[in-house]
Amino acid sequence: MASWHNCSLLVLLALLLAGCGPRPVTGGTGGTIRIGGAPMSEVQVTVHQPVGSGWEAVGFGVAATNGSFELVTSGAAGPLALAPGTYRCTLESVGAPLAIAPQYTEPGTTPLEIAWPTSDGRLTIDIPAQRTLR
Length: 134
Hints:
Elements: H1 2-18, E1 30-35, E2 38-39, E3 43-51, E4 54-62, E5 68-70, E6 72-73, E7 85-93, E8 113-116, E9 123-127
Parallel strand pairs: 1-9
Antiparallel strand pairs: 1-2, 1-5, 3-4, 3-7, 4-6, 7-8
């Protein structure tokens, strides 16, 4: 009887532990970032909306190797589905060091402005050439 009880406790413990731990947030507005036509990776794209005379971050996404990302809320608490409007995107290196020009790191100066929704339903960020980031 003790062995059945111990076995049941182990199974219960395994089931509880299987449900624990962080899970990636998915389901937010999707996008792609490219530079000179090639996908960028290890770059965080932060999306800002206009608030008063400034800009407020509403969410971000981190580009995978193919340049794709999905937006999550600023606290990464859940997926971010963008509402219609105008947004500015800033960039930050999150992997191997990437030199990003200061203009791309601030919502007040970034040239990356997007009117949402787009015709294809994705945020597409195309930076003309590598030299624009340095």
